[in-house]
Design a protein that fits this description.
Layout (H helix, E strand, L loop, with lengths): L1 H11 L10 H18 L3 E8 L2 E12 L2 E2 L6 E2 L5 H13 L9 H4 L11 H5 L24 H8 L16 H15 L3 H13 L5 E2 L12 E2 L7 E2 L9 H4 L1 E3 L1 H13 L5 H7 L18 E5 L2 E10 L2 E8 L4 E7 L6 H13 L13 H16 L9 H6 L2 H11 L7 E11 L2 E10 L2 E9 L7 E8 L2
Antiparallel strand pairs: 1-2, 1-12, 2-3, 4-8, 5-8, 6-7, 9-10, 10-11, 11-12, 13-14, 14-15, 15-16
Helix pairs in contact: 2-12, 3-7, 3-8, 6-7
Length: about 475
């Protein structure tokens, strides 16, 4: 009863008015979005802006699907921005006395590797050691066939753990599939049904639905490019692949309603919000800056609760500044451009002072040399497939190689080929980005490697840079 009373009081703790965007701010936001879409050939974007705890702008730009203009009423696939809802479902079920986040996974779902040692909390903060089933930024061959949560678990969650629970932080979609299955088993309802009853309906989030149901011409379609080739509509995955890890579609406005609930500590008991935003401490005491389905950072002295999402042909960004009572939601229907994060960053600069630039560090010379070799081969239109894994060879179809060649060859020789940041572990691969510079333009290269100095390349994606 105390939690319920606090939640109801929080519902009343909203400002009467919000400072609206000025005409100059609105014009600046329009320039930010339209410039980014044009420069990267992004088909569309849908945005929502929260100021003083209220939505002050929702707007859509571009084309959502063939013959379908983008509008703020269209739900976009938000992918991993769904994770915060799956995590909150388990927090609410804990409030109902149906589970504890410190329960071992095996108590609720037997047969998971390490299930007697992994807690539900570790599933949600990505420290379980369960291997990620989808670390790639493209759809691999198995995703062309329907699956089920159990099908994903049987392949990936029964492998040996990548590390002892709590030893490392490694993003794991598989962990969230397990979490979703447990939420359904404990609640006795499908995950989306439970979330609709406890969260979406009370907040008026009427657009939310399963992303598998939005892969039709009536909804935004996903798009992509091979390197700098033409924008093409991508083939969506077969049903069942995202589930509790990223199964939701919604409008930017509805995601902003959830952000406002976070800012106001409304609907959900305040201590649940706090637990979700408490970062995990690894066994060695280090802090990866991640809570339960959300990332938490302090930037320019301000706490930011943020997550991004990637589905096949879609990218999303959701950032909340609780103390400043502000939020920025950006949804796009391409997965071949970093425009969604640039749009979010630059819109935030209209509302808040800009954050400092992130540092960059070097990586192993052998990996950089291998990446440069493959890049030069693609510029020439020839590819040594022995340098690639089976999944990467599946990705590099004759059309893909042709698009890489036709779009990269005219650029000539790069003036610089530099690592961007430090390598990180995910899904059994080392992930490393590169910045490729030419006179007047920059490209971003995303690579995944098998472990070891001579590991084959699992992912090799080129996108426009800043």
């Amino acid at each position: 009863m105390l939690k319920l009373t606090l939640a109801l009081l929080a519902l009343l703790a909203v400002p009467a008015t919000a400072q609206p965007l000025t005409p100059a701010e609105t014009a600046a936001i329009d320039r930010i979005v339209t410039t980014a879409l044009a420069s990267d050939q992004v088909p569309s974007a849908s945005i929502a802006i929260v100021r003083d705890g209220q939505i002050v702008l929702t707007k859509a730009y571009g084309t959502a699907n063939t013959g379908l203009p983008a509008t703020p009423a269209l739900p976009y696939q938000v992918a991993s921005n769904s994770k915060q809802f799956t995590a909150m479902a388990l927090l609410l079920l804990e409030d109902e006395g149906k589970l504890s986040l410190d329960d071992p996974v095996a108590k609720h779902l037997p047969g998971i590797s390490g299930g007697d040692r992994i807690t539900l909390r570790q599933l949600l903060n990505h420290t379980s050691g369960i291997q990620d089933f989808w670390p790639q930024d493209y759809s691999f061959e198995a995703m062309s066939r329907p699956t089920t949560p159990q099908g994903i678990v049987d392949i990936w969650a029964k492998k040996p753990l990548d590390f002892a629970p709590g030893d490392q932080w490694q993003y794991s979609n598989t962990g969230y599939v397990v979490a979703g299955m447990i939420a359904e088993k404990v609640s006795g309802q499908p995950l989306v049904t439970y979330l609709t009853r406890r969260i979406f309906k009370p907040l008026g989030m009427t657009s939310v639905r399963d992303q598998d149901d939005t892969n039709t011409p009536a909804f935004p379609a996903g798009y992509g490019r091979y390197a700098l080739g033409p924008v093409r509509q991508v083939t969506p995955p077969a049903r069942g692949w995202l589930y509790g890890a990223g199964e939701l579609s919604m409008t930017a406005e509805d995601l902003a309603k959830w952000d406002i609930a976070r800012i106001n500590r409304s609907l959900i008991p305040a201590d649940d919000w706090a637990v979700q935003e408490t970062t995990v401490k690894l066994n060695d005491g280090s802090d990866p800056g991640y809570g339960l389905g959300v990332g938490i950072r302090t930037v320019a002295g301000r706490k930011v609760v943020r997550h991004t999402g990637e589905a096949v042909g879609f990218l999303s960004s959701n950032s909340v500044w609780p103390a400043e009572r502000a939020a920025v939601v950006v949804l796009t229907n391409t997965w071949s451009s970093g425009a969604y994060t640039r749009i979010a960053r630059d819109i935030a600069a209209v509302v808040l002072p800009p954050p400092p630039a992130a540092p960059q560090d070097a990586i192993a010379a052998a990996q950089a040399a291998r990446a440069r070799t493959v890049f030069d081969q693609l510029r020439a239109g020839a590819l040594d497939r022995a340098l690639l894994t089976a999944n990467a060879n599946y990705y590099f179809t004759p059309q893909a190689i042709a698009d890489f060649h036709s779009s990269l060859a005219p650029l000539g020789e790069p003036t610089a080929f530099e690592p961007a940041g430090k390598p990180v572990l995910r899904g059994g691969f080392a992930i490393q980005g590169y910045t490729v510079k030419y006179p007047g333009r920059t490209l971003d290269l995303s690579t995944f490697y098998e472990p070891g100095a001579s590991g084959r390349i699992e992912q090799f994606l080129v996108n426009p840079g800043e």
